[in-house]
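Entry:
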Amino acid sequence: MRALLLCAVLTAPALAQTPQPAADAFMFEADPLVITAPRLKLKPAAILDPSINATLLQLLRQRQNARPDSQAVLDASVGNLNKLSTATGYKLKTRYTELGFLLTEGLAGVTDMSLASELETTARSGTNVQTRAAALVALAYTRNPRYQSLFQQALLDANMTVRLGALEALSILGAPGVQFQLANASRQDASLPVQVYATAGWWRTGDVFGREALLRLAENQDWLIRAMAVRYLGEMGGPDEYRKLLRWLSTETHQAVRAELCSALLNLQRYAGQ
């Protein structure tokens, strides 16, 4: 039987050699750099092994007041990852050099009271800013409006990482009043990159004024701000944005912004000619 199967494979018609769909080419690609919140995929009655939450709680406590360091950069195990320049390489490097990312993914949407309480403590008073930001985002996945005031308070933090985490948390929470908080941050935050992120979130809530603010940021003198704004315009825009970006492509001089413009235009290609 095995010989017959092998013969059938080797003598199969050309149809068997037809290229597979493009999606198959990415079958072995690493997971995208997003928080997958695996807890949210579990059935409500699912019982977790206690060692899972216990381990996450221990890691959180170890990191919440740890001083930021560059040990990951010096770690020989990730040395090769630092040399990678592909999108997948970047995702792998971030995943395994930033423990806060893994903690956010593991704790996102947690319902265990001891873990939720520890997350809230970390988000309020932890001295490690990366872990504070991770705790804010993880709490947002509970979709519990009681944390909204905590996120709003974090918007006033002196550290940009914490403020960005607070904005991401508010966007995930999606509670009433979030639109106002995003709009306020888009105008008043001390960091222009944070303003761009807030403005994109503001527009994503459906407020047209967020779109107008993002268009203004796309003409900022700072190339990074232009590039960030262009990216979000490409994600959420329509025919008007397509025409604007196409005009800007002919006058933009910075290479990174030109590349971002091309990506945005490709995303909006369905609006060409409208």
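Confidence is low (pLDDT under 50) at residues 1-33.
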